[in-house]
């Protein structure tokens, strides 16, 4: 259907650094923001979620600039999801799949934020 998988968030270690973690967090939020942009042109009721993702992205960007001094630009290519949305059924399936994946990704984000609160380099 053209819906990419969420970036994998792992426990911080010497092989999965804070920089890698933040990069994947941003990539995931940006990816879902882009997917919802496509889907919202075909389905209603996604505007509040788009606004929440935009706010989350702004907060993560502020955190990275303050803590890491890093700047992450949009890391996601434009999805080809739009070309797969031929009828209302495919739109409904895409919305369902995207929201299910987003829920799982947000659980991972929440877990990661809890770990980052106690993280000391």
From TrEMBL:
Gene3D superfamilies referenced in this protein's UniProt entry, alphabetically: 1.20.1250.10
Stretches that traverse the bilayer: none
InterPro entries in alphabetical order: 4_helix_cytokine-like_core, GCSF/MGF
SUPFAM superfamilies linked: 4-helical cytokines
Full protein name: Leptin
Organism: Goodea atripinnis
């Amino acid at each position: 259907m053209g819906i990419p998988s969420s970036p994998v968030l792992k426990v911080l270690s010497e092989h999965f650094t804070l920089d890698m973690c933040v990069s994947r967090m941003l990539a995931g939020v940006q990816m879902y923001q882009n997917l919802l942009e496509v889907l919202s042109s075909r389905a209603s009721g996604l505007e509040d979620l788009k606004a929440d993702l935009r706010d989350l992205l702004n907060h993560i960007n502020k955190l990275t600039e303050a803590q890491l001094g890093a700047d992450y630009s949009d890391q996601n290519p434009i999805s080809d999801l739009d070309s797969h949305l031929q009828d209302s059924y495919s739109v409904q399936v895409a919305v369902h799949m995207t929201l299910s994946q987003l829920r799982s990704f947000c659980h991972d984000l929440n877990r990661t934020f809890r770990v980052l609160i106690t993280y000391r380099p």
